[in-house]
Design a protein that fits this description.
Uracil-DNA Glycosylase, subunit E, single chain, alpha/beta, disordered C terminus, disordered N terminus, globular, six-stranded mixed sheet
Length: 337
Amino acid sequence: MTATEGEPAGGPVAPGDWPDDPAGPDTPVAHSAAEVTELAAAPVSLHELTARQSVCRACPRLVAWREHVAVTRRRAFRDEPYWGRPVPGWGSERPRLMVVGLAPAAHGGNRTGRVFTGDRSGDFLFASLYRCGFAVQPASVAAGDGQALVDARMAAVVRCAPPDNKPEPAERDTCAPWLLAELRRVAADLRVIVCLGGFAWQATWPVMASLGFAVPRPRPAFGHGAEVRLTNPQWPDGVLVIGCYHPSQQNTFTGRVTPAMLDAIFMRARAGAGLPVAQRLLSANADHVISYALHYFPESASRPAKWRLGLSCAPVRQFHRRYYGATPVAQGKRPAS
């Protein structure tokens, strides 16, 4: 469709015309893989690096697709402008945790300009990050919404939304210098990387090898909760890489990924990063709390169903004491974090 009178014009936004846009009219643009390597390797600040990421035009297929989506737009968002550019890394400049995903969603990050923002995968992810103390709000809706990451940063292996959510190997390799340069700038503080999905897991190894980390051979198999500790003489503490199933709609709707499973990953990440356990309680939804108890205490599944009716069951109390330092509160209430 084309924009009609009263609707925002379709197409990507110009650099500098978006909330928290890191780029400006003078930001240099990469038009090829060689130029990506050159611009990513330049000795610039992390902010300038993200600006350069956000205007890249090195992959013709991805450029054409992301801009086509920004022009046509989904019916639900036809009254909204679309970012329509590469989605740069975002979060703390001194993160202890880096979350690495596959690529922005066509109507998520490609619309909002922020990674994992504006789609259901992001809703699931940010809710967990909030519960585990890595985000200040339980939802990430749009750039400029007040959301911020705490001791954490996130980035995608491929910075542009790909057709059918499937980037080609050449596009992954062209984009790799952006991730490499970003990790190099935060490596001194970084302690944990959580890879969302097998694509991010596999793409992380050559990048870490380029940073001088000793990568196991053969490369470790991906799995939910898989862990590999990488060592590097320059960073004695090393980096813990953790695998996590991607919180896609397919995975979350089928129960392949549950809130409990995602929280377990990020609570492990807190421990691996040397961060204190978050004291924030779960939202007081009884079914949600009980799903946590069933995940961490599977023996409870065989108990009589009557314990599911309240929050006073021993497994729920045990879970909260262990991970949140308190017992669950009555429905509809949340203690101050």
